[in-house]
Design a protein that fits this description.
Glutathione S-transferase Yfyf (Class Pi), Chain A, domain 2; homodimer; transferase (chains A, B); alpha+beta; 220 residues; 2 domains; Glutaredoxin; four-stranded mixed beta sheet; 8% strand; 4 strands
Chain lengths: 220, 220
């Protein structure tokens, strides 16, 4: 009970996926609790009063918020299996830089791709393509963002892959054709049990977003 | 030469102040290079091609970008003197959470306080007061954000203190009267040699911002 790990999350959150993948990588058993985002639980509001957002990791009754911080926490508390951050300080700084880049640059465009139409969606599309171009170039010919080993930046970005099809369909553009290296990287990540277990089916994400656009936003 | 540490920075940047304080805390000798932000150096653009922003820390010829990442890097490379992050993983996660909170919540309002007038500035004022209220409550009766020891969150926020007078004057409100605990905390921080050495004079910041508003933006 004292070692209890609980995750408050929502199935299609690419941020929650990071924490789930990290827990799987470490072989940590945890209780998954799906939140209703339109009616957040009292526990979520109590555990993350500042941002009131999922994912919230609760370990021994204490909350850890923000997915990249959770992943680093998991790596520090369970250091033995599959290190997530490199041991070299410079490589660690680089991993943190690119995770931070992903957080800073995707939030705006990904929200707009999902919720907007017309010009706003077009702008978001261009911004998102720019992010993909930068990440494609950073990946280069490496197997993973950190080199030969799956790590923090891979965990930070792989969840977005399960949304690519949704972005492509709702905003009518092609990611797959433009970035074959990123797609090959995603397929390499998916060979890991942790990623395969956590990533939802792309069609399920698409259906939920299509339903949301149609029923809540009243757009197609 | 191989151990050379260079910092590309701008004197009134509260982000650059973080890195300078961390270097002072560790007793690391470094070469400070002031950037002209309206005409950035080729070295800055080469070392931070993604964000093209100061501060950039260059260690052994390699760049580390983003101030909170730089502070963590400095703590990891020079671990002996004055630890900046706590050793306990949960406390480390909390320190990262609050540093991240400061970065997420101050960027918008602080830019608007400095550059806007009227309604936009009023909104920024309310948002900034909300941040201060949250930080005041998180500080509570502790000496520093992490407890008894000066650390990451103190380093993340103390630079803003040198801007308080500027915000008060250009946006016509009072911070000092509303948050005595935060002011007492800032004064405690200023007793540290690192902070006292790095923080610029509040009147100098105010003059530079007043000049910028008058000469560049054409507002008072």
């Amino acid at each position: 009970m004292a070692e209890e790990v609980i995750l408050l999350d929502y199935w299609s959150s690419m941020f929650g996926m990071r924490t789930r993948i990290a827990l799987e990588e470490k072989g940590v058993k945890y209780e998954y609790r799906e939140e209703d985002l339109s009616n957040k639980s009292p526990l979520l509001l109590e555990m993350n009063p500042i941002h009131m957002k999922i994912p919230v990791l609760i370990h021994k009754g204490k909350p850890i918020c923000e997915s990249i911080i959770q992943v680093q926490y998991i790596d520090e508390v369970w250091p033995d299996a599959n290190p997530i951050l490199p041991s070299d300080p410079y490589q660690r700084a680089q991993a943190r830089f690119w995770s931070d880049y992903i957080d800073k640059k995707t939030a705006g465009p990904c929200k707009a791709l999902q919720r907007e139409t017309g010009e706003k969606q077009e702008t978001a599309k261009m911004e998102f393509m720019e992010v993909l171009k930068t990440l494609d170039s950073e990946l280069g010919d490496k197997s993973f963002f950190g080199g030969n080993v799956f790590g923090l930046v891979d965990i930070a970005f792989i969840g977005f892959y399960s949304w690519f099809r949704t972005y492509e369909v709702v905003a009518n553009f092609s990611i797959v054709a433009e970035f074959p290296k990123l797609i090959a990287w995603a397929e390499r990540c998916l060979k890991r049990e942790s990623v395969a277990k956590v990533l939802p089916d792309s069609d399920k994400v698409l259906k939920s977003v299509s339903d949301y656009r149609k029923n809540i936003l009243g757009i197609n």
